[in-house]
């Protein structure tokens, strides 16, 4: 009886359902599909030769290499941090646990531009450590280290936030059983914990990588916008767009970023299709 009432409560009249579906489709069309259509249309508006010439430009290739290099450095760092933080928060009780959880969420509440400014105040020429860095000929701001630091900061919650609820839902029974049977902590992690979190971990890594490659605000502050040196792909798009003669090139680079986003989305959907139960537990707990 109760389940029947519950099912009936979830059934809306047909006009209401169609209105909700229509509003959703309209929103997706206006704010997602049309912008993507404009990006690819403008990218190909001048023809394929111009499109490929734009992607083959030396400065654009340098921005692609820098974007990939930044992600290659930042994503593994965040993966190590995320696994360690999730392991500590989900499996152990210790003083400061709530503070650690709050700090993990900090990049979600701080503007990326503010995060970039913090690094400038710390490591810039006039920053707290600027004099010491200059004396030792170490360059962080307007160089690769600053870009990596900014990208790592804005992306480090992604892996941890995907793993913490998953590990909490799984509990500690299996780890305790392995330790009782004589396995050490490292062996327990690799043979008990890791198999249980591997798909959730990969899901978090995908999200972290997508965010790292598309980061603009924090990187814009610390990069210096030097063509061919410190421009990542999003910064290259902005610079080309602001150049009246490079309008099509800007959309060509933007379309490449969009394609990378589609690849990430396809991999995410594949994980949800193959391992839906685990990812549902990840989100729902």
Account of the protein in words:
The chain is built from 16 helices and no strands. The protein has helices spanning 2-9, 14-43, 48-55, 58-91, 97-104, 106-109, 112-123, 130-135, 144-155, 157-170, 173-180, 185-214, 217-223, 233-242, 247-274, 276-284. The chain is globular, with a radius of gyration of 23 Å. The chain starts with a helix and ends with a helix. The relative contact order is 0.13.
Structural class: mainly alpha
Number of separate helices = 16
Strand content: under 5%
Helix content: over 70%
What topology does this entry show?
Layout: H1 2-9, H2 14-43, H3 48-55, H4 58-91, H5 97-104, H6 106-109, H7 112-123, H8 130-135, H9 144-155, H10 157-170, H11 173-180, H12 185-214, H13 217-223, H14 233-242, H15 247-274, H16 276-284
Helix pairs in contact: 2-15, 3-15, 4-9, 4-10, 4-12, 7-9, 7-13, 9-12, 9-13, 10-12, 10-16, 11-12, 12-15, 14-15, 15-16
Q: Characteristics of this structure?
A:
16 helices, mainly alpha
Question: How would you briefly describe this protein structure?
Answer:
This protein is mostly helical. Helix content is 80%, strand content 0%.
């Amino acid at each position: 009886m109760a389940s029947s009432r519950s099912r009936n409560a979830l059934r809306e009249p047909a006009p209401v359902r169609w209105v909700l579906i229509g509003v959703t489709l309209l929103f997706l069309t206006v704010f997602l599909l049309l912008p993507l259509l404009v990006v690819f249309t403008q990218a190909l508006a001048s023809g394929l030769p111009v499109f490929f010439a734009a992607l083959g430009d030396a400065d654009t290739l340098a921005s692609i290499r820098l974007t990939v290099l930044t992600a290659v450095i930042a994503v593994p760092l965040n993966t190590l941090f995320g696994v360690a933080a999730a392991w500590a928060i989900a499996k152990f009780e210790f003083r400061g646990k709530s503070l650690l959880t709050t700090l993990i969420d900090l990049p979600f509440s701080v503007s990326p531009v503010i995060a970039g400014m913090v690094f400038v105040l710390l490591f810039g020429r006039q920053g707290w450590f600027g004099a010491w860095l200059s004396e030792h000929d170490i360059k962080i701001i307007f160089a690769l280290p600053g870009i990596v630091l900014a990208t790592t900061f804005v992306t480090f919650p992604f892996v941890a936030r995907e793993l913490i609820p998953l590990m909490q839902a799984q509990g500690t029974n299996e780890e305790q059983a392995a330790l009782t049977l004589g396995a050490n902590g490292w062996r327990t992690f690799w043979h008990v914990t890791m198999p249980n979190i591997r798909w959730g971990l990969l899901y978090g890594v995908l999200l972290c990588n997508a965010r790292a490659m598309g980061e603009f605000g924090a990187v814009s502050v610390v990069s210096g916008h030097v063509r061919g040196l410190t421009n990542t792909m999003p910064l290259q798009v902005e610079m080309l767009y602001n150049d009246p003669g490079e309008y099509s090139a800007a959309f060509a680079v933007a379309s490449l970023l969009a394609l990378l986003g589609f690849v990430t989305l396809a991999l995410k959907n594949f994980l949800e299709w193959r391992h839906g139960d685990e990812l549902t537990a990840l989100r729902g707990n």
